[in-house]
Specification:
single chain; 192 residues; mainly beta; seven-stranded antiparallel β-sheet; four-stranded antiparallel β-sheet; extended
């Protein structure tokens, strides 16, 4: 049991003139963060078992940290009844930019890349497989470089997948985005 509790609190106070100048900073700053984009207009692509599928996107533009391949079990085919977090890993996957293979990974290589970038599945929680295009975790220390792959000069991007069972696939891109608040308070997002 506690007989006596003491607490000391300090508050940093800003001079009144500085408070007035910092009170409304709309339009004076921006924030670089992450934004999720879909690869194509089709929300869920139905992929047959052991069939190679190619999903394309024209001129994505922007700098991307990850390309997430969310492949979920097909089940009975009803999207309202499937488990959206029961991910299936591809046996092969490739990132092709303007007809050139940029990354080609088999399942073991993809899982190693996941682990190296801090994404690991457990018995209870599965993570979707992804292409990691920049180091963005603290796995390499607090001062590690957080990069991205620029697709500004790429006119066509294709993700090739081969999966052992029938699945629905959604491909998401995580890109760098700048968020600004205009002088009238509107939040705007841009890829630059």
């Amino acid at each position: 049991a506690f007989y006596k509790v003491e607490m000391e609190s300090y508050e940093a106070m800003m001079p009144a003139a500085a408070q007035r100048s910092y009170a409304n900073q709309n339009g004076k700053y921006s924030l670089i963060s992450r934004a999720f984009r879909r690869l194509s207009n089709s929300d869920m692509v139905n992929v047959a078992a052991n069939t190679e599928v190619a999903i394309s996107c024209n001129a994505p533009g922007g700098a991307y940290e990850e390309i997430i391949i969310a492949a979920i079990k097909h089940g009975n085919g009803n999207l309202d009844e499937i488990d959206m977090f029961d991910y299936v890993e591809p046996t092969e996957m490739a990132l092709v930019c303007d007809s050139r293979n940029v990354r080609t990974l088999d399942n073991a290589q993809a899982r190693l890349e996941q682990f190296a970038n801090g994404f690991t599945s457990t018995a209870d929680i599965k993570t979707p497989i992804r292409f990691c295009l920049g180091t963005h975790t603290r796995a390499y220390g607090a001062n590690s470089y957080s990069g991205a792959f620029s697709f500004d000069a790429v006119s066509d991007v294709t993700i090739k997948l081969k999966i052992a069972e029938q699945v629905f696939v959604r491909i998401l891109w995580i890109c760098k985005a700048r968020y600004t608040i205009s002088a009238n308070g509107e939040v705007a997002q841009s890829l630059r």
